[in-house]
Amino acid sequence: MKPPYYAVLFSNCLRNQDDVFYQNLSQNLRAQAEKQPGYIGLESYRNPDGKGITISYWENLEAVARWKKHSEHLVARQYGREKAYSQYSVRVCEVTREHHFSNP
Questions:
Q1: With bands split at pLDDT 50, 70 and 90, how would you rate the model's confidence at 1?
Q2: Model confidence over 74-91: pLDDT tens digits?
Q3: Cα 77 from Cα 74, distance rounded (Å)
Q4: Domains in the chain and their CATH numbers?
Q5: CA distances for 71 relative to 68, 89, 100, angstroms
Q6: For the segment 5-62, what is each residue's pLDDT rounded down to a tens digit?
Q7: What is the C-alpha separation between 43 and 45, in angstroms, rounded?
């Protein structure tokens, strides 16, 4: 990824980590996101206590806005509010630079 681009940080806490419907919905949503114009990538992490964060990367704000309005994303957001999450927050950030390190 070469800046500038955008990162959407979705931090949340699951009510039930054994929710099979949520797990399937999440996998399907990720596959749908990968097909969207402007999609760059995604990272997702979850702690044993149910707290997690998903960071999706997008080329521009238009791509972020299109994804927010995607029909399957709308269904997932509704399910998240009603059933899956005890809380969540969304932050949209512009990435202006990045640095990398690896030690093989």
A1: confident
A2: 999 999 999 999 999 999
A3: 5
A4: 5-89 (3.30.70.100)
A5: 9, 20, 35
A6: 999 999 999 999 898 999 999 999 999 999 999 999 999 999 999 999 999 999 999 9
A7: 7
Q: Dig out the tokens for 74 from the structure.
A: 């709308």
Residue 65: strand, helix, or coil: helix
For 21-45, letters b (16+ CB in 10 Å) and e give ebeebbeebeebbeeeebbbeeeee
Sheet containing 51-58, strands listed edge to edge, beginning at the edge strand earlier in sequence: 39-46, 51-58, 5-14, 85-95
Residue with tokens 């797990």: 23
pTM over 0.85: yes
**At which residue do the structure tokens 């005890």 appear?**
86
